[in-house]
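Quarterly update from the structural biology core.
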Amino acid sequence: MSEGHTAGLSTVGNCTAPTSSLGTRLTSARLLVLAPHMDDETLGCGGTLGLHSDPSRVHCLFATDGSRSPAPLLPWAGRIDPELPTKRRTEAIAALSELGVNHDNLIFLDLPDGRLSRHQDTLTENLSETVRRLRPEVVLAPFRLDAHPDHVILNRIARKVLKTRPDQPAFAEYFVYHRMRLLPGGDIRRCLRPSSLVRIETAASATVKMRALMKYETQVTITQSWQDRPILTPESLRERCGAPEYFMFSDPGEGLLEPFPRRRARILVAYLAQRFGKRPKDRLLASLQWLGGRGRVR
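Predicted structure, tokenized:
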């Protein structure tokens, strides 16, 4: 994942109170958390998992091998650590242990990071088998309009698998990214049906969430010579651990934009602009910075 923002979390719609039946299920039910990359589960759900009454009922499936974070924006600016998959798996086991989840409850599919779209059949097969075997009461996946393509694919496959099950579990989407600058207020959650949102107050588990995130050393520290900052900065960590967590409960069979009662065209444009515009912009800025650095060396 890449660093995000969490300003304005306390004013997102008229969310369902954390004492509601849906909120209670998130901290007591048999959960299956679907994470595209190691750390997404803690960033989006770590505070809630830290409040769970019985962590032995929590399982987490990691879809990718985490082999591309951190990675240089410019291929010639540095190299990716070939040991990242091993390191990030070890970090995930340590992070979930902080949240009380045993390593036996973790599933690693090890599909190529950043390439889930090319492995949808394998992902579908593995997820179907996992849901059949574990019979979760609630499945959690990244938000459907997330900024990272792996997050979007995992959400899509989760909805595809769950909508065909006769014993369909509840489905909740968590937020790793929520900022969309082209929308009013810059927060995609403000555009959702308020009745579908659940806010979990996680102040009581903020410390354990921070401890869990700090286990992801490859994400919270500078580990490569070409890095000028970690993936997750201290400021970002404080914001994420100090804010409530939000979840959108939805019907896996509904259309992509059905959770949005209005402004659907604007939301779609804002999403596409962020999804396909951010990385080229970041690469352009990195190229200019690199060229400027070369000029100073000369």
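The chain has one domain: 9-297.
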